[in-house]
Amino acid sequence: MISFALVPVAEAALFTFGCLVIHALRRHADVVTATLACLATLLVLMIGIACAPESVAKYQAASVTDFARLDPAIY
Q: How far apart are CA 47 and CA 43, in angstroms?
């Protein structure tokens, strides 16, 4: 099991490795840019899904009466 004290070291090592990869591929800047843009988009989508308040399946199976109370006196 990894110690929590090693987490910052692992993060720094991963960041440094990423920088080395980007530096090594600087001649292919367009590919690197597109790849990083795709990864950033996926990260934003994953964070959005993780922060969603409730399951979408709940709303797909629901009916109108689950969200609104219709007053028969109005009709």
A: 6
**Cα–Cα distance list, 67 to 31, 63, 64, 70 (Å):** 47, 8, 6, 10
CB atoms < 10 A from the CB of 35, how many?
A: 13
Question: Considering the entire predicted model, what is its pTM?
Answer: 0.54
Rounded Cα distance between 31 and 28, Å, is 6
Give the angle subtended at the CA of 9 by the CAs of 32 and 49, to the nearest 5°.
55
pLDDT single digits (tens) 24-39: 999 999 999 999 999 9
